[in-house]
Amino acid sequence: MRKNAMRTLLAAAACLICTTAFAQTDNALMAAASKKKPEFLRDLATLVNIDSGTDDAKGLGQVESFLAQRLKELGAKVEIVAAPPSAGKMVLGTLQGKGTKNIMLMIHFDTVFGVGEAAKRPFRVEANKAFGPGVADAKGGALIVLYAVDLARERGIDNYKTLTVLFNPDEEKGSAGSRDMIRKLSADQDYVLIYEPPEADRVTVSTNGIAHVNLDVKGLASHAGSAPEKGRNAAVEIANQIVQLKDLGDPAKGTTVSWTIIQAGDRANIIPDKASAIADMRMSDLSEIARVQADADKIVQKKLIAGTEVSVKVEYGRPPFSKNPASDHLAVVADQIYHELGKSIAPVGMRYGTDAGFAYNPKSGKPVVLDGMGIVGDRIHSSDEWADLDSVAPRLYLTTRLLQTLAKPDGE
Questions:
Q1: Do the strands 202-207 and 346-350 form a parallel or antiparallel pair, or are they unpaired?
Q2: Of 224, 313, 328, 405, which residue has the fewest beta carbons closer than 10 angstroms?
Q3: Could you give the CA distance from residue 247 to residue 370 in angstroms, rounded to a whole number?
Q4: Is residue 171 flagged as an active site residue?
């Protein structure tokens, strides 16, 4: 059954390639996309100048209201859905069409930045680049979704069955409150397009999964001046363990384990009785979780500080978006559309994790997922994050033409 489903997906994708390969530039569409750029920039400034870190309920609420209002103006049925334990809520919009295909466009609107960051470095434009917190990741992507839906509406593109838009508020911390909704909605879709920012003219056909390796040491406190020898220094032991565990990754499989957080002690005159550390783990092969756990369990048995207790636990977070033929074929369709503009688009696999891992079901091979559809940008998660404003019109063109193409009945 799974093989038959995959054959159907591949046949549909191959048909799309055939119908797209020799298309001419839709000059009217490109002109309409270019015309929207000034308004797009005004909206981008509005969103970037609102702090919306994952834990900032107030700022997330402001962005949520903006997105919901725009979807209503586009004729969508809009629902605001709670996403506990996350601070923000999901914005879900649905448009009914006249066809047979279900298509979903999705992206997050939270950022990694804290309250006050927008005031510290507000939206600004230099040459063809826009700067500010979340300008590319992923407020620019959210606006690509809204403006492409607007272009499709203006051109009467409604040959889909349903067009669903999902904006979620918690991707930067693992989508704890939205992952179930993403899975549920995606299960009913034929295609899911995700608007994370690519670093160049690219789309993303695979991403890594994410896990955390949690390391804890229990020692014995003592006065650091008068009786240090009576203590069992948890800080020294955790340092020892991190050195021992530094090679848990497997370069041949693309697995990385990077120690990023270390905590021990809170007073200089006390031998710390506890310490903890967290490593960021990235993998494309889920069996690596069990392998890393087994290897770590063996390694931590060797201690430097006698009398300490050491425990290690791998905590699985976000699944990988596995490389698959249907997404590869859809990337070819995107490239053919970009060729209409005299450009090309490259399919890439990325080492980071995204909500594509929740949208794609590797057991069924459904839906067909393509990530990296957002505004082009770089220096993501840094104070130098920027978005390429020259990519706005081409990216709007790409999504609008994809909506037009993907919604066609099979064989047309």
A1: parallel
A2: 313
A3: 32
A4: yes
Best CA proximity match to 262, nearest among 243, 247, 283, 282: 243
> What's 407's DSSP letter?
T
For 227-260, write each residue's pLDDT tens digit. 999 999 999 999 999 999 999 999 999 999 999 9
Query: Under a CB-based contact definition with an 8 Å cutoff, are residues 207 and 279 in contact?
Result: no
Question: How many helices and strands, by DSSP H and E, does the chain display?
Answer: 12, 18
Tokens encoding 201: 């003219």
In the sheet that holds 368-370, the strands lie side by side as 77-82, 89-96, 162-168, 102-108, 191-194, 368-370
Do 386 and 377 meet the contact criterion of CB atoms below 8 Å apart?
Answer: yes
Q: What is the mean pLDDT of residues 81-95?
A: 98
Annotated catalytic residue, options 51, 170, 171, 335: 171
- Can 229 be counted among the known catalytic residues? no
Tokens at residue 42, please? 């005004």
Nearest CA-CA partner of 265 in 287, 299, 245, 239: 239
Closest CA to 155 of 399, 333, 409: 399
Q: Which entry of 26, 43, 51, 110 is annotated as an active-site residue?
A: 110
Distance of CA 91 to the CA centre of its chain: 16
**CA distances from residue 289 to 181, 210, 294 in whole angstroms, order as listed:** 25, 10, 9
- Please tell me whether the overall predicted TM-score, pTM, comes out greater than 0.85 for this model: yes
Specify the residue for token string 């750029």: 37
Q: What's the rounded Cα separation, in Å, for the pair 83 and 81?
A: 6
